[in-house]
Specification:
- The protein is of the alpha+beta class.
- The protein has one domain: Pnp Oxidase, Chain A (Roll), CATH 2.30.110.
- It is built from six helices and eight strands.
- The model has no long low-confidence stretch (mean pLDDT 96).
């Protein structure tokens, strides 16, 4: 049923862009560490090349993905069709966190139109691209984006930096999070 692709063909790119939500999975190296799966939305995903993608990492209360990428780089992005023909696409790769202080951040950010100032951009070199049937995924009707994150960030304003410093210094397992938090 499933197929492995050499690169992100145009039909796959169209499928990925059409999804309103995708899921990111990472894990630490230690067997006792916590596996993390995070949903992502707000039009924050972009295809950067035949085997390269990126997404905007919005402020949040946890920093698991960033911490896991710093430790080992392993990441998988999963896209599911919730309407139309059933399909699942997984992008397996090596990711890295590009933070606002990094030289390449402005050029990457220009590829997006974020509604919230991002804490980082996750840049992924895709090593494996595979689809599967998605027959067991239910259908849902998309009704729009939630506005709570945008409203929260607007209300926080400059205080978002202190929030990130408090919440994004380390992961659940004590792994280091955002680099700029360490340096202050």
């Amino acid at each position: 049923m499933g197929k492995v692709y050499e690169c992100l063909e145009e039909t796959l790119q169209d499928f990925l862009r059409a999804q309103h939500v995708f899921f990111v999975g990472t894990a630490p190296l230690g067997a006792d560490g916590h596996v993390n799966v995070s949903p992502k939305g707000l039009d924050g995903f972009r295809v950067l090349g035949p085997k390269r993608v990126a997404y905007v990492d919005h402020p949040g209360s946890g920093i698991e993905t960033v911490a896991h990428l710093r430790e080992n780089g392993r990441i998988v992005l999963m896209f599911c069709a919730f309407d139309g023909p059933p399909k699942i696409v997984r992008l397996y790769g090596r990711g890295r966190t590009v933070e606002p202080q990094d030289e390449e951040f402005p050029a990457l950010l220009a590829r997006f139109a974020p509604r919230v100032v991002p804490r980082a951009i996750i840049d992924v070199d895709v090593e494996r691209i595979a689809d599967s049937c998605g027959f067991g995924v239910p259908t849902y009707e998309y009704r729009g984006e939630r506005e709570q994150l945008v409203e929260w960030a607007d209300k926080k304003g400059p205080d978002v930096e202190s929030y990130l410093r408090e919440k994004n210094a380390t992961s659940l397992d004590g792994l280091p999070g955002l680099r700029w938090v360490e340096s202050k």
